[in-house]
Design a protein that fits this description.
The chain is mainly alpha-helical. It has 6 helices and 3 strands. Strands 2-1-3 form a 3-stranded parallel beta sheet. α1 crosses α3, α1 crosses α6 and α2 packs across α3. The two termini are 28 Å apart.
């Protein structure tokens, strides 16, 4: 039986935010405060449980030291490309619910390792 390895856009973006936050030596609380959201909201974003709106994306970009949101988007697109090069499909969350395919969801820990290049 063939198994497809998949992940979701929100999971990739969330892990990217978590990695960048840690690289900059920030705790969730500190980054959340800079962005103007709760620590719980940031945690949901980092886990891939929640998407961001444009305003939050812009504030995240600035809080992480980017001049423009497009720089953060470029980082996301690079991470997405790297993940796809490793044979992992990026699909909408709905695809994993009920289409009958055998799927193996690539978890947050695995994404962290992939994004870290380990």
């Amino acid at each position: 039986m063939d198994v497809e390895r998949i992940t979701f856009c929100d999971a990739i973006f969330g892990q990217l935010i978590a990695s960048l936050r840690k690289e900059r030596g920030l705790e969730q609380e500190a980054l959340a405060e800079r962005v103007g959201i709760s620590r719980a909201a940031l945690s949901r974003i980092e886990r891939g449980d929640s998407s961001t709106n444009l305003a939050t994306l812009i504030h995240l970009s600035k809080a992480l030291g980017f001049q423009r949101a497009s720089e953060l988007i470029d980082k996301y697109e690079s991470a997405e490309s790297e993940i796809m090069e490793r044979g992992i499909q990026i699909v909408p969350k709905e695809k994993a619910r009920g289409d009958g395919a055998v799927l193996a969801l690539v978890g947050i820990a695995a994404l962290a390792a992939l994004l870290a290049g380990k």
